[in-house]
From TrEMBL, chain A:
The keyword ATP-binding applies. Keywords: ATP-binding, Nucleotide-binding. Residues 6-248 form the ABC transporter domain. Belongs to the ABC transporter superfamily. Ycf16 family. This is Fe-S cluster assembly ATP-binding protein.
From TrEMBL, chain B:
Residues 23-173 form the SUF system FeS cluster assembly SufBD N-terminal domain. This is Fe-S cluster assembly protein SufD. It comes from Amphibacillus marinus. Residues 177-410 form the SUF system FeS cluster assembly SufBD core domain. One of its GO terms (biological process) is iron-sulfur cluster assembly.
Length: 261, 436
């Protein structure tokens, strides 16, 4: 199965009247791993949230296409049905809903009515994925993200990614707040998905994650735009030299968009 | 009573009603005294709800001929689904139109002296025991007009007695089925758990109709003696046409534990108060309640725990969902009396609003007359969190299903506490029916 294509064209996004993204262009195809890097406040997470349809973000200009279909016309659940998945930086806590019930509802949402996943098959798949991510099985019966540590929340996001097998996965700072062991486990989960059918957009503030998940393409965001793109060698240069050389090269003084984005 | 009611339900009528049931004289006297008091005392005044126009007068006091129920299998589906028929042994009491039509208790329990029967049978067979607890230490006849009218016109109920040291594992279930649309339920439940005993009791108020005007006036008195434990679950589901007053009262002695899990799902105007007095040292009460308001109904809920004993612990949790143009207020009252050192009073009241026209309010109150205590409260009124919806929908779950998950999750703290599986499932169903 060949993968899907996510195209972002001249994307402009506002939050509460303030423009954060100022013309982002990016294409992610099945089989490709893209990393988006950049200092804090340059619009990386805004891009992820806008693609998925977060209620606070308003797209004012540009296009997002999934295999040619207009994503911006879709409701959030339709975007997921179309093959998009966002591992969130701050997943919501939902009291009273067990992680297991949520996962089963999510899987069934991608299946036809009357073709729901059999309970035993679901438990088997969930258990296998939890083992792979070295997760405590009790987590399945705990309420969704409630009282989870930062690391548990991130693993839970990757667990969902593994079970839902989307065409395009977007990982929004999946590495923040993880210790090195957790980072390795999460990376293992991401790498397991690598195939022609899976494209991935990895948003990160640190180079560390990219030591474990090697990107094919690397993009740097500043001032709400992609200002530099390259291959994996770009990660190494950023690691040793930081971002200042890019700012100098492009004549940028303040790389941020003015607010925490 | 109102003037018309006093005429209709005169001393002569009440005496005849009592005599026809061969009640002990003390009960006849109590009824007559209550009838006489009811003329002069005032209606209750629930805080922030005006009930002056509520109709507590339109009802029939006695049912028309009630068909017996020959077998549980023959019950109509909407009643039968509350009974787990797969079980070999039920501890079940079924009152249809206030007539005992089915009663079962495990033989080993009756051998140990456990009593689980309807209130009239209890009056006939255990008069002195009922007399000791019937509107004496718990609810008073003259608290207000509705308690007095209740005492005068009581027409059904249940009596549970658990002797010292008896631990009942299987829950006792009482179903009060109002099949006759006009029949009022003046229902009285008494639960007595003697020292070191344990019991779980679940009651269901079910109806077969919707709009016919009638009244429910329900009192439950629950007594947990030293080191006794009572777990009390309910699904209240009176119809839209039924004006309801519910008063559930608990009294806990030393080291006693009373747990309430109340599913308050009435469709009509309702006042429901749940008050527990923790008299004994180290006594504990968890008062958990959920409710769903819909249509045009107005409801007033009070959950109150009074800590008298040292180291007593009272925890209140109320979660309500309001839709359409329903109105509800949730009073949470934690009161620590002087002398209740090291007592703890915690409460949480949350209201989830599903419509612009619904009105909901949480009213937390802490009244503390002792220095060395701990207390806390949390209250909120809000809508479904759009970011939570976004999170669930981002996994492909539809908006409606996402809302459903969030609402069930919001009500789960009480639903999950209901001890009988079939009743828990039915409460979930009732919630589903009310929310969508």
């Amino acid at each position: 199965m060949s993968g899907s294509t996510l195209e972002i064209k001249d994307l402009h996004v506002e939050i509460e009247g303030k423009e954060i993204l100022k013309g982002v262009n990016l294409t992610v195809k099945g089989g490709e791993f893209h990393a988006i890097m950049g200092p804090n406040g340059t619009g990386k997470s805004t891009l992820a949230s806008a693609i998925m349809g977060h209620p606070k973000y308003e797209v004012t200009k540009g296009q997002i296409l999934m295999d040619g279909e207009d994503v911006l016309e879709m409701e959030v659940d339709e975007r997921a049905q179309a093959g998009l998945f966002l591992a969130m930086q701050y997943p919501s806590e939902i009291s009273g809903v067990t992680t297991s019930d949520f996962l089963r509802s999510s899987i069934n949402a991608h299946r036809e009515e009357g073709d729901e996943i059999p309970l035993m098959k679901f438990i088997k798949e969930m258990d296998a994925a939890m083992d792979y991510l070295e997760m405590d099985k009790n987590m399945a019966q705990r309420y969704l993200n409630e009282g989870f540590s930062g690391g548990e929340k991130k693993r839970n996001e990757i667990l969902q990614l593994m079970l839902l097998k989307p065409a395009i996965g977007i990982l929004d700072e999946i590495d923040s707040g993880l210790d090195i062991d957790a980072l390795k486990v999460v990376s293992k989960g991401i790498n397991k998905l690598r195939s022609e059918a899976f494209g991935c957009l990895i948003i990160t503030h640190y180079q560390r994650l990219l030591n474990y998940v090697t990107p094919d393409y690397v993009h740097v965001m500043m001032q709400g735009r992609v200002v530099k793109s390259g291959g994996p060698e770009l990660v190494e240069r950023l690691e040793s030299e930081g971002y200042d050389w890019i700012k100098q090269e492009l004549g940028i003084e303040d790389e941020t968009v003015g607010i925490d984005a | 009573m109102s003037v018309e009611l006093v005429d209709k339900y005169s001393v002569d009528y009440i005496t005849a009603f009592s005599k026809a049931r061969q009640e002990p004289q003390w009960m006849t006297d109590l009824r007559v005294a209550a009838q006489q008091k009811s003329e002069s005392i005032a209606m209750p005044k629930p805080d922030k709800t005006n009930i002056t126009r509520w109709d507590f007068n339109t009802f029939q006091h006695q049912a028309n001929e009630t068909e017996r129920v020959s077998s549980l299998v023959d019950l109509p589906d909407h009643i039968k689904k509350f009974v787990d028929l797969s079980k070999q042994q039920h501890n079940l009491l079924l009152l249809k139109n206030q007539t005992n039509v089915h009663q079962a208790l495990a033989p080993d329990l009756s051998d140990q002296g456990v009593i689980f029967t309807d209130i009239f049978t209890a009056l006939a067979e255990h008069s002195e025991l009922v007399k000791k607890y019937y509107m004496t230490e718990g609810v008073q006849v003259d608290e207000h007009k509705l308690t007095a009218v209740h005492a005068a016109l009581m027409n059904g109920g249940a009596f549970v007695y658990v002797p010292k040291n008896v631990v009942i594992d299987e829950p006792l279930q009482a179903i009060f089925w109002q099949d006759d649309a006009e029949l009022a339920l003046f229902n009285h439940v008494i639960i007595v758990a003697e020292d070191n005993s344990e019991v779980t009791y679940v009651e269901n108020y079910l109806t077969s109709h919707q709009e016919t005007k009638t009244v429910a006036n329900v009192i439950a008195e629950v007594f947990a003696k030293d080191n006794a434990s009572i777990s009390f679950g309910s699904v209240d589901h009176f119809a839209h046409g039924t004006t309801t007053y519910i008063n559930r009262r608990g009294i806990g002695q030393r080291d006693a534990k009373i747990e309430w899990a109340l599913g308050q799902m009435n469709d009509g105007d309702t006042i429901s108060e749940n008050v527990t007095h923790l008299l004994g040292d180290q006594s504990v009460c968890y008062a958990k309640a959920v409710s769903v308001g819909r249509g045009d109904q107005t409801q007033n809920f009070t959950a109150k725990i009074v800590n008298h004993g040292k180291h007593s612990d009272g925890i209140i949790l109320q979660h309500g969902v309001m839709k359409d143009s329903a109105t509800a207020i949730f009073h949470g009252i934690g009161k620590i009396e002087h002398g209740g050192t090291k007592a703890n009073a915690e409460q949480e009241s949350r209201v989830l609003m599903l419509s612009k026209h619904a009105r909901g309010d949480a009213n937390p109150i802490l009244l503390i007359d002792e220095d060395d205590v701990t207390a806390g409260h949390a209250a909120s009124v809000g809508r479904v969190d759009p970011v939570q919806l976004y999170y669930l929908m981002s996994r492909g779950i539809s908006k409606q299903e996402a809302e459903r998950l969030i609402i069930h999750g919001f009500l789960a703290p009480v639903v999950n506490e209901i001890p009988i599986t079939s009743v828990r499932e039915q409460l979930t169903d009732v919630i589903e029916g009310k929310v969508y």
